[in-house]
Specification:
This protein is α+β, with helices and mostly antiparallel strands and 268 residues long. The protein has 7 helices and 7 strands. Strands 1-3-2-4-5 form a 5-stranded mixed beta barrel, surrounded by 4 helices. It has a two-stranded antiparallel ribbon with strand order 6-7. The longest helix has 16 residues. The N and C termini lie far apart (118 Å). 31% of the residues are buried.
């Protein structure tokens, strides 16, 4: 039993070895590969992929400890986005994407989105697919093809990077998220869409850190009378609804322009 445990430990260690990064963050790939997303990649991958499947990785927990000064914040007011911290008992749910070997755009895109702008490093991990539930928009593979574990690339922020914010009381993190905006939208949108993804696609997944922050953000927004629909980028939809309502409300603003008419009685 001791030898078996030792071999399992060695396997876990191998799965967390950093990937060698080639020129400008690009890696040379001769076969299809998987990328595991646990943040905005879950609902906005931004690259072409062959298949996607929900699942989890072990040994990590998701935390909103990474600062962001581009997509969800600014240099003067950095937002907070998700990263993973090592946790022997941790399980992090998300979505893995299969990228074709001939796809030369995905890795440079991810390198810019994660490594250059966010201070992340690339690792390989063992990805465990969620049994019998998967999405494959461009493949006719059977569900049995997705029941085995596979290696996947994983982007993790390092505590020594200049954007790292680290731990803080959850109410403080929630208030920071509620107040920050970046080029991709509000920091609150990032958090709420991730929470929505988890509820809709992996309802059995537990993530107390994520859902506690969501509850606090919603509470603070209500207390401060902040419209979450606006923060979620639904401005245009709201304006259109208001326009439609205005069309059906009768208006008398032109009544004063109607000329007066004198009525005359005609005796027959």
């Amino acid at each position: 039993m001791e030898n078996q445990k030792e071999n399992m430990d060695q396997t876990e260690n191998v799965s967390r070895i950093p990937i060698k990064i080639e020129h400008e963050g690009e890696m040379l790939r001769k076969e299809p590969f998987w990328v595991f997303g646990y943040g905005s990649l879950c609902w906005n991958p931004g690259f072409d992929y062959q298949q996607s499947v929900t699942g989890y990785v072990k040994g990590f927990s998701r935390r909103f400890w990474q600062g962001n000064t581009t997509h969800r914040g600014t240099e003067t007011k950095p937002g907070r986005v998700a990263t993973l911290i090592e946790d022997n008992e941790g399980v992090t749910w998300g979505k893995a994407f299969l990228i074709a070997a001939e796809n030369k755009a995905a890795l440079p895109y991810l390198s810019t989105r994660e490594c250059k702008l966010g201070g992340y490093r690339i690792y390989t991990v063992n990805f465990h697919p969620r049994p019998c539930l998967f999405s494959s928009p461009s493949s006719s593979s059977s569900s049995s093809d997705f029941q085995t574990d596979r290696n996947a690339l994983l982007y993790i922020a390092l505590p020594e990077n200049r954007h790292w914010l680290g731990a803080a009381p959850l109410p403080d993190i929630a208030k920071q998220i509620l107040e920050c905006h970046g080029s991709s939208g509000s920091n609150a949108e990032y958090l709420l869409k991730l929470a929505d993804f988890m509820r809709e696609e992996i309802p059995e997944a537990l993530d107390e850190h994520l859902f506690s922050l969501e509850r606090l953000v919603r509470k603070f927004a209500s207390d401060m009378r902040i419209c979450l629909k606006t923060l979620m980028g639904e401005k245009e939809e709201i304006k259109e609804e208001q326009k439609q309502e205005a069309r059906v409300v009768p208006s008398f603003q032109f009544a004063s322009r109607v000329p007066d008419k004198k009525l005359r009685c005609v005796n027959m």
